[in-house]
Design brief:
With 274 residues, the protein is of the alpha/beta class. It contains eight helices and 16 strands. The strands form four sheets. Strands 5-8-2-1-11-15-16-14 form an eight-stranded mixed β-sheet, with helices on both faces. The chain is globular. 43% of the residues are buried. The mean pLDDT is 89.
C-alpha cells in the first residue's frame, strides 16, 4: 500500500466481468477499496458482448479486421448507445453503490480524446489499407478533466468513444485508449482485464513475464493473434513509454484486481521493458 499510495493505476475492463453480475459487483468493490486506501484507479471499459446482443436484434453480423470492429453508421449508433448510455452508467452506479464516488465520461467530455479515422493494413505485406468505418485512432489526449476528478476524490469511468476534429464520432479500441491514457498521465500500472489467463505459449501454458522483444516473437509466430493484438500493442507501447509494468489478467477470477495489485506474485502475464 505504501508503494502505490497516491499513484494512479489505469484499469481496462473487458471480458466476463462486463456481463457476469457477481464479477461486476466484485470489480466495483475492489475499485472502491483501492481508492479508499489512497490509490487512484481510472477505469476504461469495453462492451463487446452487449454490443453483439444489440446488433443481433438488427440481424447485423459482427465483422473484425486485425482485432478491430468494422463499424458502419448504424453500428456506430448502437456502439454509442450501449457504451455511453448503458454500460458506462451501470459501472458508475455499481461503484457509487459500493461507497465510491464515480463519474462516467466518454472521450468527448472535456475534449479528453480527439481522434482520427483508423485505416488498417491487415496483410502488412503491402501498403494497402482497409477503411473499417467509424473506427478511430487517438490523435490527441487532454487529461485536465481527469486530473480534476482524481484530485477531488472521484473515480473516472471512461467509454472509448471520441470525436474527430471535424465533429465525426469514432469508436476506439478500449485497450488502445487505456494504453495511451496510461502513457499520457504517467500511470504506475496498466492492467488489462480480459477473458484469458494471460499470454499463453504453444502448449497453452501461462507465460507469467515477458519483455517487448519476446512479445514481438510470439506475434511473429502467430501465438498472439485476433483480439489479443490490440492488447499486446498497447502493452508494448505503454511499457516502452515508461509505465512500470503492464498486466494482462483473467477477469473470471474473483478479486483479480486486488490479487494483481496487492500480492508480490500477481496473476496473469506481466509485460515490462526492463
Amino acid at each position: 500500500l505504501k508503494k502505490f499510495n497516491g499513484k494512479t493505476i489505469v484499469v481496462k475492463l473487458g471480458g466476463n466481468v462486463m456481463v457476469d453480475e457477481n464479477l461486476k459487483k466484485s470489480f466495483a468493490h475492489d475499485i472502491t477499496w483501492l481508492k479508499s486506501v489512497g490509490i487512484n484507479p481510472l477505469v476504461i471499459h469495453g462492451g463487446g458482448p452487449q454490443i453483439e446482443k444489440n446488433l443481433s436484434k438488427l440481424n447485423k453480423k459482427a465483422e473484425f479486421v486485425s482485432g478491430h470492429r468494422v463499424t458502419d453508421s448504424e453500428t456506430m449508433d448502437i456502439v454509442e448507445m450501449v457504451l455511453a448510455g448503458k454500460v458506462n452508467k451501470e459501472l458508475v452506479e455499481l461503484i457509487n453503490f459500493c461507497g465510491g464516488k464515480s463519474v462516467g465520461l466518454t472521450g468527448q467530455d472535456g475534449n479528453l480524446i480527439k481522434a482520427k479515422k483508423l485505416l488498417i493494413n491487415p496483410s502488412k505485406s503491402d501498403n494497402k489499407t482497409t477503411d473499417i468505418g467509424h473506427v478511430g485512432d487517438i490523435e490527441e489526449i487532454n487529461p485536465e478533466i481527469l486530473y480534476s476528478l482524481i484530485r477531488d476524490g472521484f473515480i473516472p469511468v471512461i467509454a472509448p468513444i471520441a470525436s474527430g476534429f471535424g465533429g465525426e464520432t469514432y469508436n476506439i479500441n478500449a485497450d488502445v485508449v487505456a494504453g495511451k491514457l496510461a502513457e499520457k498521465i504517467k500511470a504506475e500500472k496498466l492492467i488489462l482485464i480480459t477473458n484469458t489467463p494471460g499470454v499463453l505459449d504453444e502448449n497453452d501454458e501461462l507465460i507469467t513475464s515477458l519483455n517487448p522483444c519476446e512479445v514481438s516473437d510470439l506475434v511473429r509466430r502467430k501465438l498472439i493473434s485476433g483480439g489479443m493484438l490490440p492488447k499486446i500493442g498497447s502493452a508494448i507501447d505503454a511499457s516502452l513509454s515508461g509505465i512500470e509494468s503492464v498486466h494482462i489478467i483473467d477477469g473470471r477470477i474473483p478479486n483479480c484486481l486486488l490479487l494483481e495489485v496487492l500480492t508480490s506474485q500477481g496473476v496473469g502475464t506481466m509485460i515490462k521493458a526492463n
